[in-house]
Amino acid sequence: MISINDLELLQLIQNPGTREKGYRILIEMYQKRIYGVIRKMVIIHEDADDITQNTFVKAFKNLSNFHGNSSLFTWLYRIAVNESLNFLERKKKRYFFPIEDHTEVMQNYLDHSSMISADDIEKKFQKALLKLPDKQRLVFNLRYFEDLSYEAISQITETSVGALKASYHLASKKIENELKTE
């Protein structure tokens, strides 16, 4: 893996002669992590793949709007988070799914997909996560799985640290209660 800082990467991307190389490095550096965050939100591999691609396309188109107020990583995460939440919202509206039906579809996928190899405890945990509201699940995923600080999550979600702490605490309690009843 190439080690490069944001400024060097942006310079590569802004130079027409090295733009393609810069984009390749950007994807190499962040694609797996971005995909992981998206996959935890939408569960289904094909959807996560599409949203990951959309995230990078949107990033490439809007790179001139990146002002360096945050890291490239944070900026990409914000795009990925927004793309994921928008996708879930569109999917619910498009198919007129009540939230419970959509959750059931994703839980079914967890049970029957050959791409998910998890033991029973992990599946119960994932199903408990799916019962959380999307934004609460997002905060939990970013804090628990990605091990991001509340400050980093605050930049990504544009939410106050206090609200994020409360959201994470509520999510943790809901998951704990759900696992106790299983």
TrEMBL record:
Keywords: DNA-binding, Sigma factor, Transcription, Transcription regulation. One of its GO terms (biological process) is DNA-templated transcription initiation. Residues 124-175 form the RNA polymerase sigma factor 70 region 4 type domain. The lineage of its organism: Bacteria, Pseudomonadati, Bacteroidota, Cytophagia, Cytophagales. This is RNA polymerase sigma factor. Residues 26-93 form the RNA polymerase sigma-70 region domain. NCBIfam families: sigma70-ECF (TIGR02937). Gene3D superfamilies: 1.10.1740.10, Winged helix-like DNA-binding domain superfamily/Winged helix DNA-binding domain (1.10.10.10). It comes from Aquiflexum balticum DSM 16537. GO terms for molecular function: DNA binding; sigma factor activity. Belongs to the sigma-70 factor family. ECF subfamily. It comes from the Bacteria.
